[in-house]
Write a structure and sequence with these properties.
Elements: E1 2-3, E2 35-37, E3 43-50, E4 55-61, E5 68-74, E6 81-91, E7 101-103, H1 111-116, E8 122-126, E9 133-141, E10 145-149, E11 155-159, E12 165-168, H2 176-179, E13 183-189, E14 195-202, E15 205-216, E16 221-232, E17 238-247, H3 257-263, E18 267-268, E19 276-278, E20 281-292, E21 296-318, E22 327-330, E23 333-338, E24 347-355, E25 358-367, E26 376-382, E27 386-397, E28 401-412, E29 418-424, E30 429-436, E31 439-441, E32 444-449, E33 453-464
Parallel strand pairs: 2-5, 3-17, 15-24, 21-29
Antiparallel strand pairs: 1-12, 3-4, 4-14, 5-13, 6-14, 7-13, 8-9, 8-12, 9-10, 10-11, 15-16, 16-21, 17-20, 18-19, 19-20, 21-23, 22-27, 23-26, 24-25, 27-28, 28-33, 29-32, 30-33, 31-32
């Protein structure tokens, strides 16, 4: 029974396949052409490459095709398969053979389309709030108005509206081919094929990374582990699938065919989990094989790197050209630095610290995509046990510049020494000199603050006048 409601959509919206007029001209195949319906257990050697917002599917259809004409039928997910990227080719030939023609019809999805499929059949029209109904043959339907041919040779004209329902009096009026159409691949082979390769993009596939980093402050080492959650919004399940995760800027998010071109490029370097670079992307294979259910998700381990040395320090930035007097209080920002051996894809990170109570989470952040051998810096947040009081001691003006004498009073309440980086972010800053209590590297200053100690750092900054 089909009922009218405030929304005319009966099924979830799907992406319609755009077929040119040439594709609508189906060849005149002989009646005895063998037709092979692909079953789920025939899809083998599944490999999924996950990108940002979609996934490339590669599978082998274990179906032999005889010499001459044959037809292969495959049930897609019209909501998520990108049929423009669908690629089929035979195996077992001297050269792969493509189908001569791919055809499909989009499934009926709207109430108006479903009613239109009942034209010519006996139906019963029920109006809301009325005990009686009208039976007859649905003669015509234009999407809003229908015509019923009654048994007494009269005709009933009705306009579809909320509260109406339509019941077919025939058995199984809408065939599976109408509600769930198939892709039809027509082959004409000069020699038999042992199998068929299938490839397409599925917009329902996606993944997200999550790093778990456990640092041991006493040992100065950390362990890094990466997991990925793979999601499948489509109705297509994938069994015993090999997974690979693509990370980086593809530059062609809406043009999936470019991903395949990049995938064919020469690869070099090694990433976490044995990842490989291709173009500007990092492809990371996930160890093992996994079952990815329809409308489901799995979380899988991707790789790890252990006992990485790290250093912790604090960073204090200020804007010295603001001509501000008085005492300014602030807390520096805690950071850790480490250098991984392997390429790391971007992803959120949870940072834990080893303590007497076990590993305790101390920070959530984001780890940027990093090539192996390059340093990673994670910002942890403002320190509560390290404080700074900045005072402007004196100011001297020249024609083109002015000088400021600064005094920083840094208090460290930790029971261990801390490293402090000091940066004046003023664009007018020319030079820093007359430093006491720290070290200088260009315009950047640094200092070691002993445990449970207050240290005075003084210096002079020269600024350019606008």
């Amino acid at each position: 029974m089909i009922k009218a409601s405030s929304s005319r959509a009966l099924f979830p919206a799907v992406l319609s396949a755009a077929l040119g007029s040439s594709l609508l001209c189906t060849p005149l195949w002989a009646d005895d052409v063998p037709v092979f319906e692909v079953k789920a257990d025939q899809l083998k050697s599944t490999a999924l490459t996950l990108y940002n917002g979609n996934g490339l599917v590669n599978q082998t259809i274990e179906q032999t095709l005889s010499e001459g004409n044959s037809e292969l039928r495959l049930k897609p997910d019209f909501s998520f398969w990108d049929l423009a990227t669908l690629h089929l080719s035979t195996q077992g030939n001297s050269q792969p053979v493509l189908p001569e023609l791919l055809t499909w019809n989009t499934p009926l999805q709207e109430t108006a389309d479903l009613i239109g499929a009942l034209v010519g059949q006996e139906v019963e029209l029920v109006r809301a709030g009325r005990e009686s109904s009208i039976r007859g043959k649905l003669q015509a339907w234009n999407g809003v108005t229908g015509l019923l041919q009654l048994a007494n040779q009269q005709q009933e004209l009705f306009q579809w509206q909320e509260g109406f329902s339509l019941r077919s009096l025939n058995k199984n009026p809408l065939k599976p081919a109408v509600l769930s159409p198939r892709i039809q691949a027509h082959f004409n082979l000069k020699q038999p094929a042992s199998a068929v390769e299938l490839s397409y993009f599925n917009r329902g596939l996606s993944y997200s990374n999550l790093y778990r980093i456990v640092m041991d402050p006493e040992a100065g080492k950390l362990d890094l582990g990466l997991t990925a959650t793979v999601r499948n919004q489509s109705i297509t399940p994938y069994r015993q699938a090999k997974l690979a995760l693509a990370s980086g800027d593809s530059g062609v998010t809406n043009e999936p065919e470019m991903f395949m071109a990049r995938k064919a490029m020469a690869m070099d370097s090694a990433g976490i989990g044995g990842g490989q670079r291709a173009g500007e992307l990092l492809f990371i294979p996930v160890p093992g094989e996994f079952d990815l259910p329809a409308r489901g998700a799995v979380t899988v381990p991707v790789g790890s790197e252990n006992q990485i040395p790290f250093s912790s320090h604090y960073s204090y930035d200020f804007y010295g050209a603001a001509h501000s007097s008085g005492v300014h209080k602030a807390n520096p920002v805690g950071q850790i630095r480490f250098t991984p051996d392997k390429d790391l894809p971007a992803g959120p990170v949870q940072l834990y610290a080893v303590s007497e109570q076990g590993a305790q989470m101390v920070h959530k952040g984001l780890l940027p995509q990093t090539a192996g051998g390059n340093p990673v810096e994670l910002i942890l947040g403002q320190a509560y046990a390290v404080s700074i009081e900045r005072s402007q001691m004196s100011v001297r003006h020249d024609r083109d510049s002015w000088e400021v004498d600064w005094k920083l009073k840094v208090s460290n309440q930790f029971n261990k020494a801390v490293a402090l980086d000091i940066q004046d972010s003023s664009s007018q800053l020319i030079s820093v000199g007359k430093l006491s209590g720290g070290a200088k590297d260009g315009l950047k200053l640094s200092a070691e603050i002993p445990a449970a100690t207050t240290r005075i750092i003084s210096f002079t900054s020269v600024y350019r006048k606008n």
